[in-house]
């Protein structure tokens, strides 16, 4: 997409802070920017209608496996709900707390779906998508041992933070630890983005411009992991079955 013409005068920015050329055009360098502008209009409408509860609502949706970018939600809260209302910067802590609360609520929804919906489905039909009972047991042990750290770190990663609650629910991670580390990991993320929006003011969208290039990299890593998982399982399926009591060393020598 090239440039979308906008009628009116020719300031460098319009009243909503969108960058304009001197000829009064709104330019996009990527097709995703067009979608994000639509999301911005939605977020502004929610904030105008609901104020702070709007932050909770939008971040709950983002953490319930609905890909609303928090990189838009939280910076805009720092600008609209703090900066534009002439509140001191300390109120970005309030924005961070509301954002983390919303993350926790939405994560609980995804966790419950994973535990009560995803787990039984995978136990019954997982073999058709290369998920065995052994894989589920490995996931259970992983979240039992490293779940707290995994949840905390995941909340600081774009893309991953949106979907981590689902596998945590499937693995039936301890619910209290899940809640605590979800909030603790979400708060610095939400506060940092809200403060960035407050500090940058009408230039807040620069935060998304800086963070956008990381999304394809993280998605590529996830795809590579899934591809390796599929390759490993197909290889195991095609390998000859071992005789009872045969060890790895015996198998190697016999080959």
Helix content: 55-70%
Question: What percentage of amino acids are in beta strands?
Answer: under 5%
Mean pLDDT: 75
State the end-to-end distance: 58 Å
Order of strands across the main sheet: 1-2
Structural class: mainly alpha
Number of strands: 2
H-E string: EEHHHHHHHHHHH
Choose one word for the global shape. Answer: elongated
Task: Describe the fold and architecture.
By secondary structure, this protein is mainly alpha-helical. The chain has one domain (32-233). It is built from 11 helices and 2 strands; from the N terminus they run E-E-H-H-H-H-H-H-H-H-H-H-H. A two-stranded antiparallel ribbon has the order 1-2. The longest helix is centred in the middle third of the chain and has 35 residues, at 91-125. It is elongated and about 65 Å long. The N and C termini lie far apart (58 Å).
Task: Briefly say what this structure is.
By secondary structure, the protein is an all-alpha fold. It has helices at residues 31-50, 52-63, 70-83, 91-125, 133-154, 160-163, 165-170, 175-200, 206-211, 214-238, 248-254; strands at residues 3-5, 25-27.
What brief labels describe this structure?
single chain, 255 residues, mainly alpha, two-stranded antiparallel sheet, elongated, disordered N terminus, disordered C terminus
Furnish the topology, listing elements before pairings:
Layout (H helix, E strand, L loop, with lengths): L2 E3 L19 E3 L3 H20 L1 H12 L6 H14 L7 H35 L7 H22 L5 H4 L1 H6 L4 H26 L5 H6 L2 H25 L9 H7 L1
Antiparallel strand pairs: 1-2
